[in-house]
Amino acid sequence: MILSTLEQLPGNRITEHLGLVHGSTVKAKHVGRDLMASLKNIVGGELVGYTELLNEAREESIKRMIAEAESIGANAVINIRFSTSSITSGAAELLAYGSAVKVENG
Amino acid sequence: MPDFEYSYQIGWFLLLLLTGYLAGRYNERRHYRSIRKRELGLKDLLVFSTRHLPADGAYTAPAMVLGSAVISVDYFKSFLASLRRLIGGNIDSYESLVERARREAILRMKLEARNQGADMVFNVKLETSRVYSGEKNLTQSVEVLAYGTAVKRLEQSAEIH
């Protein structure tokens, strides 16, 4: 599965457009991480736990998007975009979406 | 004794303010030093926001690369910001917060591209979102995500247009 944020893939030809695919996850932070975060809100700096959490969630979204693309017979997802939104305090939705296509070399 | 309780609260507030000021300033300076150092190391990896690759030249198979960072503001700065909100204007303390997060995210994306053997990243998008912490409705930390498509140019001799 080729993933790209480009509209066209270099060295590849798009033979079929299969439509929009997306994957999303909603993650909540657990209490321990929230506690660390409130400490960090005093001294400043990176919230490593949150960075990891959001990265894991985003990986999960990408996986779901790939699964959807595979199920409709695509071998690449192009023009991928990400979007994050806070649903309530303490939970975030991470969305990945793109266009599923079939490509071949040449 | 209400007097004692009052002074206790003031003292606690001042302590937080001082801790925030000292630790926050130290953290920020250290972070900026680290950012500058790593940016220098990745200077030759080019990043573009253009949507298309230059038409001439051949490239390796593209790969998506991501980088993100969540940075929190310190107590002193969030206090300054709350004062600033009364009169309006630029909130300098938050500007540096977002800038640090953004540069860090771009650095991490570049590092991932470098690890994959790429030398360019195209169609880079930046996204900023707030991360709530606790029940307070203040924006106290910010997440920046940088993502793009990493490629390696096969013809090194060709000029970039």
Task: Please give a quick description of this structure.
Chain A is 35% helix and 47% strand. The radius of gyration of chain A is 17 Å and the shape is elongated.
Structure description:
The complex is a heterodimer of chains A (106) and B (161). In chain A, β4 (76-88) and β5 (91-105) form a beta hairpin. Chain A is an alpha+beta fold. Chain A is elongated. The model of chain A has no long low-confidence stretch (mean pLDDT 87). Chain A has helices at 31-43, 48-71; strands at residues 2-3, 12-28, 44-46, 76-88, 91-105. The relative contact order of chain A is 0.34. Chain A has a single domain (2-28, 57-105), classed as Hypothetical protein apc22750. Chain B (Translation Initiation Factor IF3). Chain A has two helices and five strands; from the N terminus they run ββαβαββ. The longest helix of chain A has 24 residues, at 48-71. Chain B is an alpha+beta fold and 161 residues long. Chain B has one domain (2-151): Hypothetical protein apc22750. Chain B (Translation Initiation Factor IF3), CATH 3.30.110. Chain B is 48% helix and 23% strand. Chain B contains three helices and four strands; from the N terminus they run αββααββ. Chain B has helices at residues 2-41, 75-87, 92-115; strands at residues 46-47, 63-74, 120-131, 141-151. In chain B, strands 1-3-4-2 form a four-stranded mixed sheet. In chain B, α1 crosses α2 and α1 runs parallel beside α3. The longest helix of chain B is centred in the N-terminal third of the chain and has 40 residues, at 2-41. The mean pLDDT of chain B is 85.
